[in-house]
Design a protein that fits this description.
It contains eight helices and no strands. It is mostly helical. Helix 1 packs across helix 8 and helix 4 packs across helix 7.
Length: 209
């Protein structure tokens, strides 16, 4: 793979500096747990929706998914997408209206109030284990891709990603995370358009004589 060019590094640097600035800007608003974890519940609905979608995207989406389909088949990918559509619709119809009425900060607080404090602990532990494996895979795949494009070692790439994420999320809370996700989504969407245009430009239409 060819190394990244100077404009590529400028785009990466601008994005990294931008999300760090978001963290510093929103750090001044961190005055309560409600603001830190829920952004005081005053985020626009479209920004929250984009953030949820962008959160589910990672290097596994762009590298792991296509690699799995190429090496095996697309049954797992299609099945997961179909199940996802069904569960999203169910959550939107049942869980979201219920969640909005509850004066709680997290699902684990709901588990404690509705069932038992022990269930809150078990649920939190299972979620942390799931996130550890999921994020571990995502970090390694991202660092491998960055290593192939830049030559930066995988270990260095992982440390840079972790430290950067810790800085802006710790400073800005949920508000910084949501708006950085929006910026990430817009950048990805613009990239899709550019890639599609470049691919279509490679094809030439020749009318039949």
């Amino acid at each position: 793979m060819n190394q990244l060019s100077f404009p590529d590094y400028l785009v990466i640097l601008a994005y990294l500096v931008g999300i760090i600035l978001l963290g510093f800007i929103f750090s001044k608003r961190q005055t309560s747990p409600k603001e830190y974890f829920l952004a005081s519940k005053n985020i626009p609905w479209w920004a929250a929706g984009i953030s949820i979608f962008a959160t589910l995207l990672s290097a596994q989406t762009f590298l792991g998914g296509p690699g799995w389909v190429f090496a095996r088949d697309s049954r797992w990918l299609i099945t997961g997408s179909v199940i996802g559509l069904g569960t999203v619709a169910l959550a939107a119809a049942v869980w979201v209206p219920l969640w909005q009425k509850l004066p709680i900060l997290s699902i684990y607080e709901y588990l404690e109030r509705r069932f038992h404090p022990g269930l809150r602990i078990v649920g939190a532990l299972f979620f942390l284990c799931n996130c550890t494996f999921w994020m571990g895979n995502a970090l390694v795949i991202t660092a491998q891709g960055f290593n192939a494009a830049t030559g930066v070692s995988i270990e260095t790439g992982i440390w840079c990603i972790v430290l950067l994420t810790m800085v802006y999320t710790t400073l800005g809370g949920a508000r910084a995370v949501i708006w950085s996700d929006v910026a990430q989504f817009l950048l990805l969407f613009l990239t899709y358009i550019v890639i599609a245009w470049l691919l279509l430009a490679e094809f030439q239409w020749h009318p039949q004589e």
